[in-house]
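Service request form, structural biology core

Requester: graduate student, group of Dr. S.
Request type: structure prediction, single chain
Budget code: on file
Notes: please return the result as structure tokens.

Sequence provided:
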Amino acid sequence: MKLKYLAGFIISVGLLGSTAIQAEDSGFLPSYEGLTFAPGEYGGKTIVAPGAAEKAANITKIMIDQPEIFIADDSKYKGMKPDDARALAEALRESIIQNMTVLTVVEEPGPDVLYMRLAISDVHLKKKKRNLLQFTPVGLALTAAKSLLVSDLTKKIDLVGATIEGESMNAGTGDYFGSLVIRLSPPKEKKSNEASWEAMLSRFDSMGKQMDCRFRNRIVPKSKQENCKILDSYKEQ
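Core staff response, request fulfilled:
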């Protein structure tokens, strides 16, 4: 598999604000060397481990961990109901899983399993104007679709900005494949990588599509390979 294909499936996984806050504040990734952003800089940065393509040649399955959520210390609003956070994390995970047609999604490690760790860090929230009708019944998480819970969350809280972080490795051997950090711009920037709940879900969906596309290209003749540049997050914006 060519190295250029590896970057897309490594993890298609931003930081907010006009200050020099750095993604490494979350501590989610073991190293942020080459992944930090200058003030006002947005987009995506990827690190690919040497020899990752060869090490990933036998991958046929994937484990996608539920994303962790880190709310920024300087967020205007820091509240999020446990059910809302759980539903959001699972909805983001499902946005990737639902696009997998080549790799088999599993929950057990093995030498042919790609393991993805994901996080939404430096999350900045803003509470919308109070509306007493926006009440989440206790136990809704046990019965309602995740999409309903996420929709309920978006009615109560705005996502002002966030950072998507992730890394991938072989779930059996522990061989590291690479890391990715995507810094999402605040809404006032009006850029293609603008932060919102809808944009976040769409971005994770695109990650899944691109990952699946690149794995398909690995197993088909060159004449039938697709253009997998579906996700613009890798570009400096």
